[in-house]
Design goal:
CATH class: Mainly Beta
CATH topology: Hypothetical Protein Aq_1857, Chain: A
Distance between the termini: 11 Å
Strand content: over 45%
Radius of gyration: 13 Å
Helix content: 10-25%
Shape: globular
Number of helices: 2
Structural class: alpha/beta
Amino acid sequence: MSKLFIDDNAIELIKKELVKENASAMRIFMGGGGCCKRFEISPVKKPLANDVVFMQGGIKVYVEKELVENTSAIYIKFDEQKGLIIEFMK
């Protein structure tokens, strides 16, 4: 089971996006298809059936179950140049 770590700058950015999008949480999932799969983060109003729920810094984050089962930790940080960065540790 993964642990979720979000830096303070990312928390503030996510809070602003949730208000802007009128959403209650962010969802992290595997997007794309074929050979071009990528990790995505998106504001949502509710989780999908098998999502795992995390709370940190006053925000709710839903993570696709398969990602949680295959990682030991998930790090979300904000970089001024690159935006939100999501890192998964095995």
